[in-house]
Structures are given as C-alpha cells and as structure tokens.
Amino acid sequence: MSDIAGEQAATLKALLAERQFNADRLNALTVHCERMRRELDWDARLSIAEALRRDPPTGETVLLHSVLFQLTGDLYHYERILHYLLLGGERVGPQLMHYTYWCMARQLFLTASAPEKLGAFGPCDLFRFYEELVRAVERRWGIVPPRHVPRDGPIRRVAVLTNQFTNDQHQPSRDCFDYASRLQDDFGLDVAIINCNTMPLRAESLFVPPMIAELVADYEGVFALKMFGRQVKMASFTDRAFSKEKLTTIVGAIDGYDPDLLVTFGGANVVGDLFAATGARPVVCLPTTSGMTISLAHLVLGYEEGNHTEAMPALYRGPFARRFRPFTLGFSPPPTAGVGGALDLGDEAFVFAVVGTRLDLEVTAEFLALADSILDRCPGAAIVFAGEVEQLPPRLKAARNGARMRSLGHLRDIRAFYRRCHAYLNPSRQGGGGSAAYAIAEGLPVVTLAWGDVASVAGAGIPVPDAAAYVERAAALVADPALRERQAELSRVRFRTVGDRHRCAERLLAYGEEARELLRADAQREDRPASSVAE
User: Fold this and answer.
1) How far, in Å, CA of 281 to CA of 149, rounded?
2) Is the pLDDT higher at 295 or at 523?
3) What kind and span of H or E run contains 170?
4) What is its EC number (predicted)?
5) Beta strand residue intervals within 136-186, DSSP E
6) Which of 153, 165, 257, 333 is most buried by a 10 A CB count?
7) Which residue, among 147, 158, 164, has the nearest Cα to 181 in the 3D structure?
C-alpha cells in the first residue's frame, strides 16, 4: 500500500472510530470517502475495505457498511444493512427504513455500485425492503386509506402525487406541472398536485453519504401554483419528519379530495403506494427515469417504449412484468428568449455542450479523460459545461485541454444556450433525459453511451457501445459538417416523438381507465359469495 493510501486509510479509521457523531463529523467522513474514491485506485480501496471488514473500528452496522460500499461499490454491504434493519423487527421504525431506502436508491441512481450484483439487487433486495417499508407504515402506524370502488363514468378528478416539487428549473417538477396542467386544460379534468415532500428532509441514521432533499418552505398548504402562464392547484406538506402524523394528514387530504385516479410521479411514493397496496384507489406510476422503477402502483409505465423488465432475472421479474405498460414520458420544452446572451463560449468554431444538475458527480475523471481525447482530435473545438457546480471548475483547469473547457454554472435559458452549440455530450450517468430532449429539440446531435435516460431519449442508432466509439463519433461531427447536419435532422425528427406530451397525457388517461377496471374487478370478486367463487 502506498504512503498516500496508508495515510488516507488511517484517517478513515480514525473518523469511523469517533464515539460522538454530529452533522459536521458525518460530512467530514463523507468528504474523505469521496476523496478516496477520487484519488485511490480500486485495488487500493478494496484492500483498505477488507482490512476494515476484518477489524472494524466501529460497531455501527449502517455506518460501517455504507462506508465500505463507498470504497468498493460492492452491494454486499447494502445487503448487510438491509438484513440488519429487517431483522431488527419492531425496534426499527418506518422512518429509519424510509431514510435508508432513499440513501441507497440515490447511490444506485448515481451509478456508484459495481455491476456484479446490480441486476438482482434492485428487483429483489431493494424492492422487497421497500414493500416491507410500506407494510410497516400500514401495520405499525395504522395508516390504511379507506377503500373506494371506482365510480361509473370516465375519470373526472386526478391527484398527481410527487415526492418533491421545487421550481421551474427542476426537471421533474417541470414535468409534473406540465402533466397536471395538460390533464386540466387539454382534457377538462379537475386536477391537483399533491406535493408530499416525502424524500428525506432530515438525517435519520449514520448513513454515508447522508441524503437531505431540497424543501421549498413557501410551498405550504393549498394554493394556486403558477408556471409558464398556467395554473394548477397544489396541496403541499412541509413537515420535515417522515412520521405517522405527516402521512396521516396527506392520506386524509387526498381522500377528502376524492380523486378517481392517483398518478404517482416518479417511483417510491409511499403515500400513493399505500393507496395501491390496500386497494383503496387506482394508482398509475409515471416514472421519471429509465430502467427499473420501484412502485406498488397497479400499473407502472415505461420511461420509453421498450420493456425493461425483460432484462431482469427471471426469479424476480414477475411483480414488475405484470404491471408494466409501454409508455414514453415525453418532454415539453421550456420557454426561451431565443438568444444566448453574453456567454463565454470562447473563440472555437465548434462547441460541445455538457448539461446537468449534478455535474460535480457526473463529470468523473473518466469523462474528463474522454473530453481530453476529443479535444486532442478536434483542435477547433471547445467543451462547455452548463449547470450549477462547486468542485468542477478547478478540475477542468487541471485537465490537459483545460484551456478549452469552460463551466458556465446554472443557465435559466437552456434552449438559447443550445442554439449557440453544435453537439451534446453525455457523461456516463442514469439521468439527463430532459437536458437531452431540449438539445434534440434544437437540432443538436447527441453523443452518448448505450444506457441511461439520454440513450433512451436519443433513440435507436444514436448510442455508441464504448469509449473509443464515443470519441470517434464526437470527432466525426466536428470533421464532417454534412454528417453533423444529417444527425441534427435525426434529432429534430426524434423530438417529434419524445416531444408529443399531449399524446402522452392521452395515453396516461387510458392507462388510468385500465387501472380503474382492475380495481373494480377486484372489488367484484371480493363481493361474490364464497360458493360462487369456488364454482
């Protein structure tokens, strides 16, 4: 082990051995784990993790194994945490289960795990743990929504439930509002957004890294929410505790609103899943990212038309495949002033755009190496990063071609920015679908690997298989203007599909009617006499 690795291992051991933890110490431990992931190779981190596992400096299971996961990406350590909590029985409250679920789910979304166990971990371990969480809320907190047989006639009233609603610059919030306002304005329905705020809003354990979601305190109570010249009523709940009292209040508010259909916007919406698990009201889950969505809704739609459940291990596929329905989330471009403003894009003739809300995490050393390789091949090009960052600018300066990499920070008019760029580069990540959708709306060719939201948005034939092909495609776009124009036209054609949000809302309602029929059929079976059922 090198001297640097030895020093970092000693520091980590000392941090883990702390007897009293507060937010500052937990954050210091998180920062140190991030530094080790960034500065030490995998073999060194694995060696350190094995030493800690054999001689642990702490008896805190959640703390130790969440740190070991950070070092190795080995999902064995998350399995240990889940089993520890499940075996804790009544001593482990739903609030701790909920916090742990979200901390793990975030790390999986950020692709922090090694691939060896990933195919089974989500549909098996994490899904079954989430099921136990919902059952614990129902059983131990006694939160059981009243059951209602769907009314006759079409859907008239819809509640759109979200775990987090922030502002018009937050892609999921923007999509949530757009769906709600379209169902209201285009289809004449009574619609309410229920901002549950049921992602973690305070730390419940010594999980590394901790997760605290953003909360807009001004969004409180029932009010008219206005965005993009439209208006939808919202009920928002801002208590930071994930508690019996908060969930009881939300469930009561929804039941009082008496919707014909619940749409859970995104996965793991505990409130919506309580209604689904108890058969109280029909629930359709609208995913906000590609791949597996954890939900107990009667129907779980796809992010794109392909059936991602086919890639799941056969042993765990059933609960997902039965409820899956093909769908395309669709995107509505935000307003634009049509000009790029005074942006420092440099003097280069060709500008690659990299856009995201988590670029500090997503622009890895591997991606910077790709960026350097592209700029080596393309002397007249620059790579410009758009999105709020803290740590990225000095890392760009340290890159070999750092003089041709720029970070602009957060931009309010992303479409105007795209109009001054020539192609879109996607880091290896799960998210980014919205940023790619707006890029293709403006005719930018997309360079992406063949997985994640951006690959789904870009469509067939666009994603490339590996890093070498990634660099080759980017360089070809610079070298061949005719190729770039052909790819730009493919982008514009593709957006006619992923940008048809009205059609998406229409399909969502059709699936809502199917969910109502499923619930109505269940109620009829339960009402039949036992002898009739036996026959």
Assistant:
1) 7
2) 295
3) none
4) 2.4.-.-
5) 157-162
6) 165
7) 158
Residues 282/298, Cβ–Cβ less than 8 Å: yes
Least confident of 5-9, 95-99, 157-161: 5-9
As a whole number, mean pLDDT of residues 165-171 equals 92
E runs forming strands in 442-500? 446-447
Show contacts of 248-253: CB within 8 Å, 24+ apart: 248/141, 248/143, 250/194, 250/196, 250/198, 251/143, 251/145, 251/275, 253/194
Cβ atoms within 10 Å of 344's Cβ, excluding its own: 9
- How many CB atoms are located within 10 Å of the residue 6 CB? 12
Q: How many CB atoms lie within 10 A of CB 202?
A: 13
Res. 118: pLDDT tops 90: yes
Band the pLDDT of 523: cuts 50, 70, 90: confident
Strand order across the beta sheet in which 350-355 lies: 405-409, 381-386, 350-355, 423-425, 446-447
**DSSP character for 112?**
-
For residue 80, which amino acid is it? R
Here the tokens at position 35 are 């530094």
- Segment holding 522, helix H or strand E: helix 501-527
pLDDT at 157: 98
- Of 310, 268, 317, 300, the C-alpha closest to 518 is 300
Per residue in 323-364, pLDDT tens?
999 999 999 888 888 766 667 787 789 999 999 999 999 999
Predicted confidence (pLDDT) at residue 69 exceeds the cutoff of 70: yes
3-class DSSP assignment, residue 446 = strand
Whether 529 has a pLDDT exceeding 70, the answer reads no
Query: Per-residue pLDDT for 533 more than 90?
Result: no
Interatomic CA distance for residues 230 and 151, integer angstroms: 29
Residue identified by tokens 């109505």 is 520
Distance, CA of 372 to chain centre: 28
3-state secondary structure of 440: helix
Judged on CB neighbours under 10 Å (0-12, 13-18, 19+), 115 is exposed
Of the candidates 268, 207, 271, 203, the one whose C-alpha atom is nearest the C-alpha of residue 237 is 271
- Give the SS3 label for residue 157: strand
Q: Which residues of 257-273 are buried (b: 16+ CB within 10 A; e: fewer)?
A: bebbbbbbbbbbbbbbb
Q: Which tokens go with 496? A: 């006619």
Q: Residue range 102-122: average pLDDT?
A: 96
Coil/strand/helix, residue 416: helix
Taking alpha carbons only, the member of 86, 83, 76 closest to residue 118 is 76
Both tokens assigned to 57? 């400096």
- Tokens matching residue 251: 């469930």
Does the predicted TM-score (pTM) go above 0.90?
Answer: yes
Tell me the C-alpha distance between 441 and 380, whole Å.
25
Q: What angle do CA 442, 443, 447 make, to 5 degrees?
A: 115
Per-chain mean pLDDT for the chain: 94
DSSP annotation of 460? T
